[in-house]
Amino acid sequence: MKITFIGGGNMATALIGGLKKQGYSAAGIQVVEPVAEARERLTETYGVRCVAAVDPAALNCEVLMLATKPQIMNEALAPVAGHLTNQLVVSIAAGLRLTDIGRWLGDYRRLVRTMPNTPAMIGAGISGLYADPSVDREGRDMAEKILGAVGATLWIDDEDRMDAITAVSGSGPAYVFYFIEALDKAARELGFSAEAARTLAVETFVGASRLAAASSEPVAVLRERVTSKGGTTAAALDAFMADDIAAAVARGVQAAAARGRALGNEMGMVGMKGAT
């Protein structure tokens, strides 16, 4: 399986690193990246072929990974449109719908849309995937193998739910970092040094996440086991509930999903007749 990446940013780098760790050969990977510094970094670190623009060799692949910014995807695909044969095209661009990507590629259909998240950079990501109905089992397996190199995968059968995937797990690491920040700040306000506060906050989240992942019980049960009636944890949770933190989280996730849909609508207008 030969893979060409359009774009050599952080997520492409994470995927290439994950594939190499699984024993994938650098000879089977190419990257189209206009920034010279990024090309040099990828070549030096992973030994992959990097070019500044799409050439015939770059299109000699089974999988084309779209890893450029959504706002410039239409422009990035212009040299590719009309030159694909039967390559599987996998997009990791947030918000972009397969209908629009296919239109920019000249009504191409063998497409998969996916949303990984930043923990992919350490092999601990989670990626939602959706395939156009025309994609066969072999195509789905290829996409899953690539995304599986950097973490868990979850297939969905309705592309509209990709905005929800983006809102929950794509943006989710930022929510976790936000809570780590808050716990870190609270620890410093209780007198801990910056170093000690960070350690306490980060390791608490790491340990709790690992425990949740290892347990088959609902997270609510794990929470209840830490919470003694009238104890310190109960006092903290009572304060959280009084501020309706759970509802605030739900509103935030819903806002992210709504923004994802709006961005998809906006970017999908590119190239449409009458669009400005």
What does this structure look like?
This protein is an alpha/beta fold and 276 residues long. The chain has two domains: 3-161, Rossmann fold, CATH 3.40.50; 172-243, ProC C-terminal domain-like (ProC C-terminal domain-like fold), CATH 1.10.3730. The protein has helices at residues 10-21, 36-46, 73-77, 98-104, 137-148, 162-170, 172-189, 194-214, 219-226, 232-242, 245-268; strands spanning 3-6, 29-32, 49-51, 63-66, 88-91, 111-115, 125-131, 151-155. The chain has an eight-stranded mixed β-sheet, sandwiched between helices. Strand 5 (88-91), helix 4 and strand 6 (111-115) form a beta-alpha-beta unit.
Keywords:
11 helices; eight-stranded mixed sheet; alpha/beta; Rossmann fold; 276 residues; elongated; ProC C-terminal domain-like fold
Structural class: alpha/beta
The CATH architecture designation of the largest domain is: 3-Layer(aba) Sandwich
General form:
elongated
Helix content: 40-55%
Mean pLDDT: 94
How much strand content do the residues show? 5-15%
Question: Which superfamily, in CATH terms, is the homologous superfamily of the largest domain?
Answer: NAD(P)-binding Rossmann-like Domain
CATH topology term of the largest domain: Rossmann fold
String of helices and strands: EHEHEEHEHEEHEHHHHHH
Low-confidence stretches: none
**Distance separating the two termini:** 40 Å
Q: Which CATH class of the largest domain applies here?
A: Alpha Beta
What is the number of helices? Answer: 11
Tell me the major beta sheet. 8 strands, mixed
Number of domains: 2
